[in-house]
Design brief:
Blueprint lengths: L14 H10 L3 E5 L3 H13 L4 E6 H7 L1 H18 L6 E8 L2 H9 L4 E4 L6 H17 L3 E6 L4 E3 L2 E3 L7 H11 L3 E4 L23 H10 L5 E3 L7 H9 L12 H8 L3 E6 L1 H17 L6 H24 L6
Parallel strand pairs: 1-2, 1-10, 2-3, 3-4, 4-5, 5-8, 8-9, 9-10
Antiparallel strand pairs: 6-7
The structure holds glyceraldehyde-3-phosphate, 1,3-dihydroxyacetonephosphate (13P) and zinc ion.
The site of glyceraldehyde-3-phosphate has 10 residues, from helix 3 and strand 3.
Length: about 325
């Protein structure tokens, strides 16, 4: 095997993380980040709750923060964790929704320990071909690969889908066998963003399709499953955004009890981005509305970071069950 580039940055791949999560019946959190404050909150929150963590970078985040900067940020976060916070937790750096072989290759070359190749919008055979190509390359460096079958509604990076297309359990065995992926993202009713369900007055959020998940588990015993679009869209923060000048009318997410149930199954990785965005926006709006003359970014980014860290500890402890498993 070629050199594990990610080891130099202090990262691990997801293989051992998922094995432990499967045995311990919890899910490893995968939090997206784009800037320093988000990263500090994620690492700080996971160190304090003793949780393994997957740091996720979308191709949009990569453009925003710069590939070289990201690599050093991840390395810095791990060092900060060890030296300043006195804690060492397993950290993976993962490409979220990679859409081409070249993008995955570039991330692997710059030290990512895990990549997702999202071929879910392609026909089945093309998805297999693309995913297998990435797996063959990634495994040379011991980088783990997540594939996807089934399409989530909402925005998947730059691709927007109107309707979800649930994963067909009849396809999963063939896909995993032919591609060699290490984990599989499936579509069972979650979706990306802050507006996951269109509810009429009096209606409640429809349950996730646990029947599909159970079928998938039967076909792939002990295989790590991934849930995207798993933010709960915490109403406290939506209300705060609306109170302080925002406009997020019908924002609604996946109820926490459903995520807890999923985390106790073969779901080993749960992706959360929107909830972090909501916290940061809510706090910044509040601080600036209450202190209109404030212009020092530390005065509003700092409280936003503190609140995000609190949310991460709460998720790890009460929803994913990953706390205490580092
Ligand atoms: O699944 C999408 C993630 O939330 C990343 O979003 O492409 O806006 O960075 P982004
Ligand atoms: P949310 O929009 O529900 O946070 O989902 C994030 C995600 O799936 C990133 O890949
Ligand atoms: Zn996603």
């Amino acid at each position: 095997m070629a050199k594990r580039l990610f080891e130099e940055l202090g990262l691990v791949n997801t293989r051992e993380m998922f094995k432990k999560a499967m045995a311990g019946k919890y899910a490893v959190p995968a939090y997206n980040f784009n800037n320093m404050e988000q990263l500090q909150a994620i690492i700080g929150g996971c160190a304090e709750s003793r949780s393994p963590v997957i740091l996720q970078v979308s191709s949009g985040a990569r453009k925003y923060a710069n590939q070289i900067m990201l690599r050093h940020m991840a390395k810095g976060a791990i060092e900060m964790c060890r030296e300043d916070l006195g804690s060492s937790i397993p950290v993976a750096l993962h490409l979220d929704h990679g859409d081409t072989f070249e993008l995955c290759q570039s991330c692997i070359e710059s030290g990512f320990s895990s990549v997702m190749i999202d071929g879910s919008h392609h026909p089945f055979e093309k998805n297999i071909e693309l995913t297998r190509q990435v797996v063959e390359y990634a495994h040379k460096y011991d980088v783990t690969v997540e594939g996807e079958l089934g399409v989530l509604a909402g925005i998947e990076d730059d691709v927007q889908a109107e309707h979800s297309n649930y994963t067909d359990p009849n396809e999963v065995e063939d896909f995993v066998k032919k591609t060699g992926v290490d984990s599989l993202a499936i579509s069972i009713g979650t979706s990306h963003g802050a507006y996951k369900f269109k509810l009429k007055p009096g209606e409640s959020v429809p349950p996730l399709r646990f029947d599909i998940l159970e079928e998938v588990e039967k076909r792939l015993p002990g295989f790590p499953i991934v849930l995207h679009g798993a933010s709960s869209v915490v109403q406290e923060y939506v209300a705060m955004i609306n109170k302080y000048g925002g406009k997020m009318g019908d924002a609604v997410g996946v109820p926490e009890d459903q995520l807890r149930r999923a985390a106790g199954s073969a779901v080993c990785k749960i992706n959360i981005d929107s909830d972090g965005r909501l916290v940061v926006t809510a706090i910044i709006r509040k601080v600036l509305a209450e202190n209109p003359s404030e212009f020092d970014p530390r005065k509003y980014m700092g409280p936003a970071r503190d609140e995000l860290k609190k949310m991460i500890i709460a998720k790890n402890t009460n929803v994913l069950g990953s706390a205490g498993n580092a």
